[in-house]
Write a structure and sequence with these properties.
This protein has 82 residues and is mainly α. The protein is built from 4 helices and 2 strands; from the N terminus they run αββααα. Helices cover 54% and strands 11% of the residues.
């Protein structure tokens, strides 16, 4: 996927909050989220660390069936702690 260029007004809207920002279509359905680079890095590290734990297909299926979930506040704590 290529980068999407945004104007300064939209950038301000997307970065004015400390938590994730939902992107909503004209029908009101959420189509994605904007995360800060710091939170995105934590999400990637968590995903990679979980992938390293699964050493076979059974463990991978088990890991995916019960994923670890974090609130935005918890993710920010992880970022601040590192």
């Amino acid at each position: 996927m290529s980068a999407v260029l945004i104007d300064d007004e939209l950038r301000a809207k997307l970065t004015s909050r400390e938590e994730h920002v939902p992107l909503v279509g004209s029908d009101g359905a959420t189509i994605g989220y904007v995360l800060s680079p710091e939170v995105y890095a934590v999400v990637l590290r968590e995903a990679y660390s979980r992938a390293d734990v699964a050493t076979n297909e059974g463990e991978l299926r088990e890991s995916l069936a019960e994923p670890t979930r974090h609130t935005t506040a918890q993710m920010l704590e992880l970022v601040d702690g590192e």
